Amino acid sequence: MDNKKTISDVLKQAFSRESFIYLMRNLLNHIEIGDKHDSGNLIPEAYREHINQYWRIGKYSTPDNDEIDILIVEVKNQSKLERARTTLRNFAINRLKEFEKEYSLIAFYSKEDQGADWRFSFIKMEHEASFDDKGKVKPKTDLTPAKRFPFLVGEHESAYTACKQP
After folding, report:
1. Bridge partners of 32?
2. 29 CB-contact burial (10 Å; exposed 0-12 / middle 13-18 / buried 19+)
């Protein structure tokens, strides 16, 4: 199947775990599929009011040996997709730091609307040098807005921009 059509088909429909995995398998070669599930107390306390559960469905290793984690995150309700974007991004950053990864592809959805509208995000950690109080160079990990690509997609969204990204 044509990748552009696959992307469009998946991003213009309600969230489906099977469709999302199908999309990832068609976009990225040689995905190592897994199914690690975390919920309840396994979700960091700072994010429990926003996230019900999440799955690490796999990882992809780039030709440069960078690893991209592929996640599915169920948020508490639909409004979290629209109003808690920073919190969801921070959850992704927290997870990347915890597991010493640099990149993540994430599908955020809510059962509240049966996943009709969902958020698809690519997140990349950025590292830069900064100076401490003594003038010594210290590495600083940050996330720059230019390296974060979130798209609201689904049944009620056009997904035009997300479908046009390289």
Report:
1. 59
2. exposed
Distance CA 130, CA 163 (A): 37
Q: Average pLDDT for residues 41-63, to the nearest whole number?
A: 92
pLDDT of residue 166: 46
- 87/121 Cα distance (integer angstroms): 13
Give first-to-last CA distance, the chain, whole Å. Answer: 17
Distance, in Å, from the CA atom of 78 to the CA atom of 32, rounded to the nearest integer, reads 30
| Rounded distance between C-alpha atoms, residue 99 and residue 129, angstroms | 21
User: In the predicted model, is pLDDT for residue 163 greater than 50?
Assistant: no
Give me the pLDDT at residue 150, please.
66
Residue 143: pLDDT band with limits 50, 70, 90: very low
Q: Residues with Cβ < 8 Å from 6, sequence gap 6 or more?
A: 22, 23, 26, 27
What is the average per-residue pLDDT within 6-20?
86
**Residues facing residue 139 across a β-bridge:** 129
For CA atoms 107, 28, 151, 154, give the dihedral sign. negative
Could you tell me which of 17, 22, 3, 20 has the C-alpha nearest to residue 165? 3
